[in-house]
Amino acid sequence: MSIIWTIIIGFLAGVVAKFIMPGSNEPSGFIMTTILGIVGAFVASYLGQALGWYKAGEGAGFIGAVVGAIIVLAIYGFFAGKQRAA
Q: Which pTM value belongs to this model?
């Protein structure tokens, strides 16, 4: 059940992260944004477990998932911007 919860939180975190961090280099599609939000939630979950913030089987909290989604969106925007410039 924790994976499903992480996906749901990641979906919401991706939407919130898109509103917090809009930009021309960010993915404009709703599906791509939510997928990156889900990836960010998984990154936040596993990073939090590695740092001892969460126990195994616990997903990232909503704030952690939003931070993870913002990080993934920033990385995506960085690489997408380089690809357009080349």
A: 0.69
